[in-house]
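Protein modeling request. Please complete all fields; requests missing the sequence field cannot be processed.
Requester role: graduate student
Desired output: 3D structure, token encoding
Chains: 1
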Amino acid sequence: MTTKSVQWRRGTTSEHAIFTGLEGEITVDTDKETVRVHDGTKAGGYPLAREDLSNVSDANFATRGLALADMTNIASEDIAARGIAKTDLSNLVTTAIATEVKKGVLQLATTSEAQAGIETSKAITPATLKASLSSIEGLPNGYINALTLSLSTDADHDITVSPGEAKSADKTTSMILSSALTKKLDATWVAGSDTGGMPAPLTAQPSTTYHVFILCDPTTKQIDAGFDTDLNATNLLNVSGSYSKHRYIGSVLTDTNSNIIPFIMKGKSEKLDIFYTTEQEDLNTTTNPNTWTSLQLTVPHGIEVLPYTHMSAFQDIAYNSTTYFKSKHIAGEGLILKAQESQGEYIALSDHSLLTDINGQIEYKTVPENTGYLPLVKLKTMGYTLYR
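Delivered output (388 residues):
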């Protein structure tokens, strides 16, 4: 077959820049490897785009509203103006994002913003969530486990705290005691185990409540403990230096000789049961009031507890009487203890729990059938339940 070749006029891009072709003339740009169409007036004519657009500059795409896949040929402000966001939203300002909810545009919170928990208009990724949670002190607010109390070698004055964990009272610090710690009620506070636990100027006094606290240095995480008459550990924190974090873990009471009343503590979490090894007689009288009267129990002061009590009444003649016990928090008659002529035997109620007030008190009264013949009423405190 006979073939013929047609070869158009051609030149480089720079040569075309100074060449004005005839109207309707076609030339070939040998640099851009494309065709130029001329109109007889414009130097260089009009170059045509190749199929793969490789000869079209990014700037020309942008001026015609066309974007490359990575949008690198379009200015950030132009993208934002058209409601288009980059993958990382870096071309959008905060105020613009806040108004673009309907268009599905979200701004991501930083890790510090997620930790602060104040920002309300930003989204959070799983990675940021994980980073935020990992930075939070490990134990949840209010947490306490173990850290129970027991009598030590010098049972009159020394208390041992069992290993355990707790969140500080101000909810900022996880406190972990890895080994048992012993503190002395009759010696001035010094850091360390088997050392003094009483903050100056306090000293062990008779018939007094001493609250026990675990202490923590928030920088070193070192743990200690001590006693205080104040539920906020004010005196203890004044002398404990860098041990600035605290948590209440229990209480001890002293007898008339300033010795710790012996006890056994059961429980591991917020609720603890304390049992005295010897019952504490808090009432033994025939001089019974006929109106509500406060009754002091052998339980801690400063907190409300549920005491374990054994109550009894004895009437040795043929007149009945009724004795009532109740919490100061309630109205009404409370627990009823009836004493009758019963051949010299006690009629008793046992192990009833009445919520005390912060002074360790409940109320009682006796209503006799004959005011000249009152029963013998006794109450013994066997222990109590507290919540810490």
